[in-house]
Fold:
Amino acid sequence: MRVAAITYRSVVDGPGVRTVVFLQGCPHRCKGCHSRALWPSDGGREMTIGEVLAAIGAGLFQGDEGVTLTGGEPLAQPEEAAKVCVALHGAGVHTIVYTGYVYEDILQMAEAIPALKVVLHAADVLVDGPFILAQRNERLPFRGSDNQRVIDLAATRRRGEVVLLDWTGVERVSIMPDGNVILNAHPDTLPLAQALGEVIPTRNCGEGGA
Structure:
């Protein structure tokens, strides 16, 4: 499994405090992408599924509340992504997958690549669609452009149609085991946070990994 990085205590890659696995390699090459270093499929480093799961486990042990697979393009490594999602699902870990592919196209692709269907059944949420610079929206929570959808995969399977989640207004305060407070909030609330103590900014959603 080709991995660019695994990071902990992220509050920008989905609701809550999350462990984030940045998979290496992306075929989409979106204009305006802030993670161009993750495009080459031969970048990053090779890790076994066991090593990736062990690294994820370390994040969960530290207090992270869920896992996000992003990139890069996670579905460019479908078998590996499927194995990770199945293991997390079996452990009851909330899992988000970010992809530049559109859900309806993934269903068609899954006819030839069964592992994609496994991902759709094992993950909890799919954030789909490429980043489109012309539709960039910095006020969107946990994504970059208006075309990108937040899909509730279990509800979508039950209803037989795409069911969207509304992440608007999701703001949370998490107190970590070491006493640090992680605030996931809109920039408009920054003055309040600064009044409470030192504020260390984080990265943008999906940014980094190299």
Q: What stands out?
A: Residues 14 and 104 are 22 Å apart (CA to CA). The domain at 2-196 is CATH 3.20.20 (TIM Barrel). The mean pLDDT is 88. The chain is about 25% helix and 20% strand.
